[in-house]
Write a structure and sequence with these properties.
Blueprint: H1 4-39, H2 41-47, H3 49-61, H4 71-96, H5 104-142, H6 145-151, H7 156-194, H8 199-209, H9 212-238, H10 243-274
Helix pairs in contact: 1-7, 2-7, 3-4, 3-7, 4-5, 4-7, 5-7, 5-8, 5-9, 5-10, 7-9, 9-10
Length: 284
Amino acid sequence: MSSAVPSTLRPRLRSVVTKWVRGWNRLGEQAQFYGSTLGSSGVAVAHYNGEVVRLIAQMSLGTGALAVIGGTVVIVGFLTLSAGALIAVQGYNSLAGIGVEALTGFISAYVNVRLIAPLVAAIGLAATIGAGATAQLGAMQINEEIDALEVMGVRSIAYLASTRVIAGVIVVMPLYCVAVLMAFLAARFGTTVVYGQSVGVYDHYFNTFLNPTDIVWSFLQALAMATVVMLVHTYYGYAATGGPAGVGEAVGRAVRTSLIAAVFVTLFVSLAIYGQSGNLNFSG
């Protein structure tokens, strides 16, 4: 009986070790792919600039039926519009409970810049541009089009992955500006028009606590998240297997992984920039 215990545990232990080894190998493959993609950015700009321009147009305004509603720009605009309106609703009602509803402008200037706009832009990027990139690359992978590019002498990582990362980072610049403006406008409209707060009171606290440096850091944070999101989505599309069902699975995994990565980027960047103090001064 004593010799039967190791024999029953041995397959389980082997299975656990195999899973860990596969996980580490997969992590190494991802790191290698990310390094190759970033390292090939110069090649993509120098030799495949036409593809970069085409992808920028496709990602920003969309193609086909998506172009009717303005593509990703309009989608992210509506997302941040609703998020800014929620700040007006929750912020005003919560502050009114303790008699300081005049500070709703401060909530808008503080939360929109540091949290709402970057995260919403990342979510919109992952759900639209990123998912589309994964599906496109996955379809090319299962149809052996990527292998055909390699046979023709085209650098597939630079042509397919690096160009999409560059286009995604470029697209997120005006995209993030739209996100911030829509969040500000929605919060101001909800507070001053819906709840009837004085425009002068709202603008006073909003302008007092809006730090231009925070906007710059927030913009850089959005660029970092865009880079991470596009790297994750291009990898899962490039490594898709298993036919059409495998492409759908790759899109789901890519969206899940990119959203988790975006939250971690927000966490670590916020800790690095604001630290424990929060870089907030209430004194006039």
